[in-house]
Amino acid sequence: MRHFLIVLFIMFSVSACSSRQDECNTVNNCAAKVVNRIQQNLILEQDYYGKKAVVNLSLDNKSNLEYVEVVENNGGPSFEKAIIKAVSSTFPYEPLLTLSESEYSEFMDIKLTITPFK
């Protein structure tokens, strides 16, 4: 199984969503959508800015989150909880299922680096 590495530098901004914007038709487009969803779900406290967390996660064949594990974190326990909650709230993400089987397989095991910036 191929592992897909997404490096996320989450920058807080407000973005509008529409059903058309939620479509994924390429791996890169879907990765950007996943980044946006995690960003929207991540509730940040002031002291989280500039911190870093590395997260491993796995999805099943229906885009449900099978597991999430923070493997590196310099932001403390509350930052870790916020990251896990944001990732857990992001999935399932059914638009991923519109990808081909080989493309979707790139999303089944993901390693994220999350570093919030202002």
Produce a short descriptive summary.
It is elongated and about 40 Å long. With 118 residues, the protein is an alpha+beta fold.
Description:
The chain has 118 residues and is of the alpha+beta class. The chain has helices spanning 27-41, 76-90, 101-105, and strands spanning 4-8, 53-59, 65-73, 109-114. This is TonB C-terminal domain-containing protein. Keywords: Signal. Residues 1-16 form the signal peptide.
**pLDDT averaged over residues:** 84
Count of the domains: 1
CATH architecture: 2-Layer Sandwich
Distance between the termini: 36 Å
Pick out the low-confidence regions: 1-20
Helical percentage: 25-40%
Shape: elongated
Order of helices and strands, N to C? EHEEHHE
CATH first level: which class? Alpha Beta
Strand content: 15-25%
The strand line-up of the biggest sheet is 1-4-2-3
Total E-strand runs: 4
Structural class: alpha+beta
Topology-level CATH name? Fusion Protein Consisting Of Minor Coat Protein, Glycine Rich Linker, Tola, And A His Tag, Chain: A, Domain 2
Largest sheet: 4 strands, mixed
The number of helical elements comes to 3
Assembly type of the shown chains?
Answer: single chain
